[in-house]
Structures are given as structure tokens and as C-alpha cells.
Amino acid sequence: MVARKRISIRFEAEAHTVEGRLLDYLKEHKLLNYRDAIVRATKAYYVPWVYEGELSEEELRSLAQGAIEELEFRIFQIRKHFLGEGSEPVDIHALSPTADRNSTRTEVSRETPTADHATSSTPVRPLSLKDVIDHTNVDPSVLDDF
After folding, report:
1. E-strand spans in the chain?
2. Among 51, 143, 135, which Cα is nearest to 86's?
3. Which of 77, 85, 94, 125 has the maximal Cβ count within 10 Å?
4. For residue range 21-44, what is the model confidence (pLDDT) as tens digits?
5. Could you give the CA distance from residue 53 to residue 34 in angstroms, rounded to a whole number?
6. Global confidence as pTM
7. All residues at 6 or more sequence positions from 68 whose CB lies less than 8 Å from its CB, including other chains
């Protein structure tokens, strides 16, 4: 039986500093559970390293992919909200996503018709969360808070 071990952290900052303002924002934001927000952000940033050497390469890759998707989604939210990027219309028909059942990754195949109506494929590349979101008209006001 494993002995129970608790870990806690206490972080204080002067209210006028960036850290203090950040903590105050998280505590006062009514739609956020500030503890969950801090843990979610920290997990996205560090969790693959936490389990390095303990999990199989496949499990680590899966953790890393999940972390990347969380981070890419937050990058998208920041871009959308503060920079207004990603709202240009894109020809969705140019993308043809196919899901690999044994993978969490989605791939895109772009086919170009030839003179004899046959098709040839360019190399398949991973479709990132940013690719998917950039090719949709997502209203940033309905996105979850990180």
C-alpha cells in the first residue's frame, strides 16, 4: 500500500505586480474556478515532463499531444480575442480530413486532378488544432475559459 502524501503550494504576490494582478484576476473572475484554471494551465505546460521515464513512449506521445492541443487552443483564443486573427473565410473543401483510428492525430490529404481526371496526392501532413479552428468561423465569446 502506498502511503498518502499531500502536496500544497502557497503563492503570494504584491497586488501591483503582474503576478499579483494575475492571481487577483483568476480569483475574481466569476466564470473560473481559479484553482482549476491554475492546475489546467500548469498541466498543459508541464505534464509530459512529469511522466517522462515512467510511461511508455506511446503514452508520453499521447500526453504530449494532449498538452499541445490545450496550448494551441489557448493560443487560438488569445489570437482571436486580442489580435482578431483567424476570422478570414477559407475554402473548407480544400481540406479533406481523415481520422486514423489508432491515433489522436488527424491528417489532411490534398488531391489535385490531373489532365486524365486521375488524382495524385501530395504528402499527408498532420492537421493541428489551429488548422481546424482557422478554417472555421468560431466565435471566441463561446470558447471555454482556460
Report:
1. 97-99, 106-108, 111-113, 119-121, 125-127
2. 135
3. 77
4. 999 999 999 888 999 999 999 999
5. 31
6. 0.57
7. 129
